[in-house]
């Protein structure tokens, strides 16, 4: 929402990967990390790769553990080590084998690489939603994996039938 005071989350689209009584975890999917590509990340990790298949941005996934990597991907791909099945359409893997799969051309058809994540403690996300800090919308693979990061926030709003020009930083409760 426009009133979001934390610049790390301003106009962010966060894909929720896990939610339970212990808290919530998600990845920001519309903010590329400055000056970092998958190609460069694979080079840093000494993972051999084909140049054209790894010319993708690495995203700022959130402020928590920003040195830790996550790959959000289509639900058809499963890591041989560990994949969190978010739902039928999405999976998340945080082990190196998925980067090796992507580098060799054997990875998921759709993926988004992120460093760090967004996390909420028990009840924190619910409180923020009740304070109108966040809007929620059903996840859409075309939006999440789409190439134009600067259009994802507006596209998410459009799925709700809302335009950013009609949003207000003031909220009320009836």
How many whole angstroms does the radius of gyration measure? 17 Å
Please tell me the overall pLDDT. 88
Series of H and E elements: EEEHEEEEHEHHH
Question: Percent of residues in helical segments?
Answer: 10-25%
- Compute the separation of the termini in Å: 19 Å
Name a few traits of the molecule.
174 residues, alpha+beta, 8-stranded mixed β-sheet, 5 helices
Describe this structure as you would to a colleague.
There is one protein chain. The chain is 20% helix and 29% strand. With 174 residues, it is an alpha+beta fold. A hairpin with a 2-residue loop joins strand 1 (14-20) and strand 2 (23-28). The longest helix has 8 residues, at 96-103. The model has no long low-confidence stretch (mean pLDDT 88).
Would you summarize the structure shown here?
The protein is of the alpha+beta class and 174 residues long.
């Amino acid at each position: 929402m426009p009133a979001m005071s934390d610049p790390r989350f301003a106009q962010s689209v966060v894909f929720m990967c896990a939610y339970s009584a212990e808290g919530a975890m998600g990845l920001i999917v519309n903010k590329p990390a400055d000056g970092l590509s998958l190609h460069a990340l694979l080079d840093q990790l000494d993972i051999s790769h084909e140049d054209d298949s790894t010319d993708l941005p690495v995203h700022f996934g959130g402020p928590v553990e920003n040195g830790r990597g996550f790959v959000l991907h289509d639900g058809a791909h499963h890591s041989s080590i560990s994949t969190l099945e978010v739902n039928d359409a999405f999976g998340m893997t945080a082990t190196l084998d998925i980067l090796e799969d992507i580098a060799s051309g054997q990875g998921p058809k759709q993926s988004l690489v992120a460093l760090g994540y967004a996390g909420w403690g028990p009840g924190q996300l619910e409180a923020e939603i009740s304070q109108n800090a966040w809007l929620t919308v059903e996840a859409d693979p075309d939006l999440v994996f789409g190439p134009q990061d600067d259009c994802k926030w507006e596209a998410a709003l459009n799925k709700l039938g809302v335009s950013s020009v009609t949003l207000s930083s003031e909220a009320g409760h009836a």
